Amino acid sequence: MSLLSALSIVCGLMLHVSFSALNNHYCVPRMTVPYQNELKLFNEEGIFNYSTMLIRDDLGVLLLGAREAVYALDINNVSVRKAAVYWRVTEEKQRECTYKGKHAEVECRNYIRTLHRVNATTMYVCGTNAFSPTCDYMTFVKGQLRLEGKQEEGKGKCPFDPFQRYSSLMVGNDLYSATSINFLGSEPVVLRSSDLALRTEFKSSWLSEPNFVYMDFVGESFDTLDGDDDKVYMFFSENAMEYDFYSKVAVSRVARVCKGDMGGQRTLQRKWTSFLKARLDCSLPEPSLPPIVQDVFLLKDKDWRKSVFYAVFTPQSGLSQVSAVCAYSVSAIRDIFNEGKFKTPVAVETSHIKWVMYTGEVPVPRPGACINSVARKMGMNRSLDLPDKTLQFIRDRPLMDEAVRPLTGGPLLVKRGALLTRIVVDSVLALDGQRYAVMFIGTENGYIQKAVNNAGEMFIIEEIQLYETPVPISILRLSSGKGQLYAGSEFGAIQMPVSNCSRYDTCVDCIVARDPYCAWDSTTEQCSSVYSVSSAKTAIQSLKEADVTQCPQPDPVAAVDFTLVPGNNIQLPCQLHSNLAQVLWRFSHQTLHSNSKYYIYSGGLLILRASESDAGLYTCDSVELINGRAYNRTVAVYQLQLYSRAGVGDNTTPGNEVTNSSNSTYNVNTATPELEPNLTNKEPLKPENQSDTSKVTRLEVAVTLLSLLSLSLLGVIFWIWNKGRWECLKFAKRTSESEAKRQSAEYMHIQNRTSEIKLLGPESGRPCSANNNHSAVDFKGNGEHHFTPMANISSLDGLGYINDESEI
Ligand SMILES: *[C@@H]1O[C@H](CO)[C@@H](O)[C@H](O)[C@H]1NC(C)=O
Ligand SMILES: *[C@@H]1O[C@H](CO)[C@@H](O)[C@H](O)[C@H]1NC(C)=O
Ligand SMILES: *[C@@H]1O[C@H](CO)[C@@H](O)[C@H](O)[C@H]1NC(C)=O
Ligand SMILES: *[C@@H]1O[C@H](CO)[C@@H](O)[C@H](O)[C@H]1NC(C)=O
Ligand SMILES: *[C@@H]1O[C@H](CO)[C@@H](O)[C@H](O)[C@H]1NC(C)=O
Ligand SMILES: *[C@@H]1O[C@H](CO)[C@@H](O)[C@H](O)[C@H]1NC(C)=O
Ligand SMILES: *[C@@H]1O[C@H](CO)[C@@H](O)[C@H](O)[C@H]1NC(C)=O
Ligand SMILES: *[C@@H]1O[C@H](CO)[C@@H](O)[C@H](O)[C@H]1NC(C)=O
Ligand SMILES: *[C@@H]1O[C@H](CO)[C@@H](O)[C@H](O)[C@H]1NC(C)=O
Ligand SMILES: CC(=O)N[C@H]1CO[C@H](CO)[C@@H](O)[C@@H]1O
Predict the structure, then answer these.
(1) Would the CB of 98 count as within 6 Å of ligand 2?
(2) Is residue 79 in contact with ligand 2, taking CB distance under 6 Å?
């Protein structure tokens, strides 16, 4: 390693560390649940892209669309396939598609894209069909899936290109779809296929290279005074027209149309008269281009005004790794469309158009409004009756001046690391009688982040690894009634329960987890689902306070006896239950810190070259700060006893030792004998058979010790570095300033070991995203996550909840 490259690594790490320290807003999941085999998985060999889903509770099936196949899976266990139907492209279609320059095996296939319910037995299904979108009816009768073979034209209902985003929705018998209507993908439309088909204008002021992500229906005609109509809302990103940039900038939008729209009589014939759009605001805590909406979920309330759209945003440029969730109330969006100002194009210079706020007179009935009492009073019962003045206005000015602001002023959640891809939200009735919105957010590396807003503080309860390999989650569906989540990716569909309270084995664990689905049942002494606790009176739940005073005293942790052989390195394992907890090691009432003798790492404590004076009692405590209160819990206790060869006066026999070390190598033999002069006569301490775990551990120890040798090199580096010739120094200085940055400071004085920096680097690079660097360092080599014990506890303060942009 040349000096320069070493420097760049150190600088890079420092940048990384200090950035993470500066960004206390970014959420860290409290628990990381690694991939479990118990999850119910469905996939068929040779079939890929499981990315369309339709839940049919009434039929007891989950309909799953993949590439050239549709499955009916048992809704209670998706591993159980009830029926399947294959819809392959014909050779002829594939040939035509290939002639047009598309990839035969990837693009010229039939990707099932649209799956909607028509009636009790029938579904409407569309596929890309080798760049020739086609739709059909499909029945599920007597356990059989069958395509009717009607083969309707699918243009505008389904994309040509399987990689293009799209959205569709069935309302009554009308199919609303947002996609591209031509082969090149250059003519975007929002289409209603019905007896009276309507579409958007082909004008860039209506849609400019959009990426449609979501559509939903809001029954706004219900219980209104102004006689308003029901609406279909859609979310997409497109090229901005409102910014003056030399290069293209994308913005996120919400648009809506009225259900009763029939188009105009002369102007806007067979086009929407009610297509209005507005910019969605979701500001990230760092300066950046507007983030891009990736997925949306409508959490419905009985009162539609209180329904809330939850939207996932990712950065526009690949440089950033920060995603966010913003929430928008239906009433806020509605206010902008119903009362907000419009934008209007003005020509500046010769050919340049600028969009500015329209200040002139707005015609009546209001352009873009649905037919409501105002229009009816004017004798206009249908959009066909609207005057040209109103229609021309809206044809030329579909964009609102004001952006829609998030419900909470800023993002609900900001997450660094693997980008967020999909979102669903469940409303959970907790024992305190309140409803909590629990978000399940899929990531691009196959995880689900489960987050809840507890009294204004956003909190990621856990992250769950759904897929063994890091694949993007491409669809997420929730069955609130069944308490199940269904996720799809290229490689299969997975079913996951919304909660697994049995993961928390003690009362304190159960309470501190603050999962609205879980409560401690004092009768059964188990952490159980709130829906199944034997009686609400004997159940304990404390979501806001995390009040554990009602919990019984935990049993003291029994000390594990342990043999100490002078000169050996000793490893005492201790795995914390929470990523937000700090580890606290004590030896005879003294707190231990990482130094030349002790090495505290994610999996435990390493005592380097133990001596006789190291015998005694070791305690590993976990300290977790919640709302400023410390929750201490003893995780492990070890009694280190000096090993005497004769075994005289020593009740710890070597034989006993073997049993334990075979498990997880408490005593570690280093792989570098030259550093370990006294390797002989230690048979009892050698693990019988090295498990994977111990192999990696050995490696780790070796690296640690080797790193002592690189001390000199690092010394040089730090000397130069301290001279302040490099940019990154600025960050380093800031880093050492605050408590929050102790973590990085720790790197400095831990013996200045290169390899320690390397070991810890990738972990510290993900203070809020325990899943972004899987390939880098994995102590156990089994995909399990580890948390740096020295991680900054003060990152708890902000927990990703940003009330106000001024904080930034
Ligand atoms: C479908 O899955 C295959 C296999 O993983 C992948 O190569 C391809 O890109 C996927 N296609 C789409 C449209 O996602
Ligand atoms: C789900 O179905 C699979 C395949 O039939 C079966 O092996 C598994 O035991 C089932 N799981 C449950 C919980 O019923
Ligand atoms: C369901 O819809 C299909 C297609 O519109 C129709 O042919 C069928 O008769 C309907 N079935 C029922 C039970 O309504
Ligand atoms: C609109 O509807 C009202 C009552 O439904 C009716 O009296 C009126 O004639 C209609 N107006 C037009 C222009 O159709
Ligand atoms: C719930 O968690 C427990 C303990 O980790 C595990 O044994 C069980 O399989 C999990 N259940 C499900 C359905 O994932
Ligand atoms: C918990 O740990 C903190 C931090 O180490 C300490 O200050 C506090 O006294 C401990 N509390 C209890 C009850 O052990
Ligand atoms: C070995 O480890 C397993 C799982 O980590 C644990 O269940 C078992 O009790 C351990 N056995 C010994 C002897 O420590
Ligand atoms: C190894 O340890 C034994 C006793 O444990 C001691 O007598 C011997 O001198 C040591 N050897 C070296 C090379 O340190
Ligand atoms: C160690 O593992 C090897 C191969 O895995 C096996 O043959 C041997 O019996 C094992 N030794 C002990 C003591 O378990
Ligand atoms: C000597 C020693 O540490 N024995 C322990 C080995 O592990 C078992 C189970 O974890 C303990 O019960 C023994 O005390």
Answers:
(1) no
(2) yes
Ligand 1 residue neighbourhood (C-beta within 6 Å):
48-49, 106, 111, 162-163, 490
pLDDT computed for residue 645 by the predictor = 60
Please report the atom of ligand 7 found closest to the CA of residue 660: 13
CB 585 within 8 A of CB 635: no
Is residue 456 packed enough to be buried (19+ CB in 10 Å), middle (13-18) or exposed (0-12)? exposed
Contact (Cβ atoms closer than 8 angstroms) between residue 531 and residue 479: no
- The tens digit of pLDDT for each residue in 592-602 reads 998 888 999 88
Q: Residue 688, exposed/middle/buried by CB under 10 A (0-12, 13-18, 19+)?
A: exposed
CA 234 to CA 337: how far, in whole Å?
13
* Residue-wise pLDDT tens digits, 723-738: 332 222 222 333 333 3
Three-state DSSP at 494 gives strand
**Ligand 6-lining residues (CB < 6 angstroms):** 584, 623, 630, 632
Average pLDDT over residues 651-679: 35
Instruction: Give the distance from CA 799 to its chain's centroid.
Output: 15
Give residue 25's pLDDT: 56
The candidate with the shortest Cα–Cα distance to 445, out of 325, 295, 288, 321, is 321
| pLDDT tens track for 375-395 | 999 999 999 999 999 999 999
Measured CA to CA, the distance from residue 4 to residue 355 in angstroms comes to 50
The mean pLDDT value of the chain amounts to 79
Q: Give the H/E segment covering residue 759.
A: helix 754-764
CA atoms within 13 A of residue 609's CA, in its CB half-sphere: 11
Q: Is 139 in the pocket of ligand 2 (CB under 6 A)?
A: no
Q: Mean per-residue pLDDT for 537-556?
A: 87
pLDDT tier for residue 554 given thresholds of 50, 70 and 90: confident
Query: Can you point out the beta strands (E) in 89-230?
Result: 112-117, 122-127, 134-141, 144-147, 152-153, 167-171, 174-180, 188-193, 211-218
- The answer to whether the beta carbons of residues 437 and 426 sit under 8 Å apart is yes
Distance CA 744, CA 749 (A): 10
Which pTM does this prediction carry? 0.76
Tell whether ligand 7 has an atom less than 6 A from the beta carbon of residue 663.
yes
Distance in angstroms (rounded) separating the CA atoms of residues 104 and 89:
11
